[in-house]
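The instructor's notes for this session suggest beginning with a concrete chain rather than abstract definitions. Hand out the sequence below and ask the class to guess, before any prediction is shown, which regions might be ordered.
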Amino acid sequence: MITSNHKSSKSSLERARWLITGGCGFIGRNLIQKLIEEGGHQIRVLDNLSVSTREDLEQICNFREFREFSEKLSSFTELAVGDIRNYETCLNCCKDIDIVVHLAANTGIGPSVENPRKDMEANVIGTLNMLEAARQNNVKRFIFASSGAPIGECEPPIHEELAPHPVSPYGASKLAGEGYCSAYYRTYGLETVALRFGNVYGPLSGRKNSVITKFIKQALNNETLEVYGDGNQTRDFIFVDDLIRAIRLSATSNQTGGEIFQIATNMETSVGELTDKLLYIFADFGLKEVKKVYAEPRLGDVKRNFSDTSKAQKHLGWSAQVSLKDGLGMTVEWFLKQEY
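After discussion, reveal the predicted structure:
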């Protein structure tokens, strides 16, 4: 149980040794950018490159790929190509690490419905491997990327005290990860923090499988925007810069071990409303002929979803700051500079 408000360790903020699983992906690269801007950190990335590439990481930093694990991090960002389903890889990557940010996962409801075993192996076995590797290497803090999916269908807003009833295999696997984080804190003393991310969007999301990325790519390719269902389903869309601040605060705040935090905007936006906002933004950038069409709803999708973030505000000193309009504008602008 949390007993005090947010406090941070200045020494940890100034210099820490980070392991970021899935670090070549969208959120990982945004986090790495932030850490490099701050300076003084040492960074190791573990990624199996199943979704992202070495070139993606090269876009934001110079790095050294290594095959022989040593107990001392170099001054360069290090890339370890490996899989979280391999325990020995996890164990080696956690050597000499202060903070683990566990982003690597089988992501999305659709893929979990199509292949629930693959989803379980990555999200349950992979998370357990990382927790045990962190414990064996005396890691100080373990940050687990979760989502609202463990809760399932409920009357929003989602908050941390709701009983979980996952609808999809993805929600079930993330719930298992949250459970193991709680157990590793209460049994072994590993300081775990589970962050339930809202629907994250922003620059560097070109490979992300999400509704905003899909709509922007469709518009840039002169395609019709495909809306699943009637468009009345709601989500809580959070800009990536706000999310990275939450991760940074979670890495250093005291009295947060074993806790779960909703990290979103506390605002409910329907997919139809999102589409209309994007159409206005597309027009501002000269894309005036974009159309939308409605398709069949997806299996496993919840109808309404947004979060109560008051716990994060109280105990992490965090709240979202970027409006959806501004965030979408920055995201579309980033995509226009890429080759899609």
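Then share the key points. The chain is about 40% helix and 20% strand. The first strand starts at residue 17 and ends at 21.
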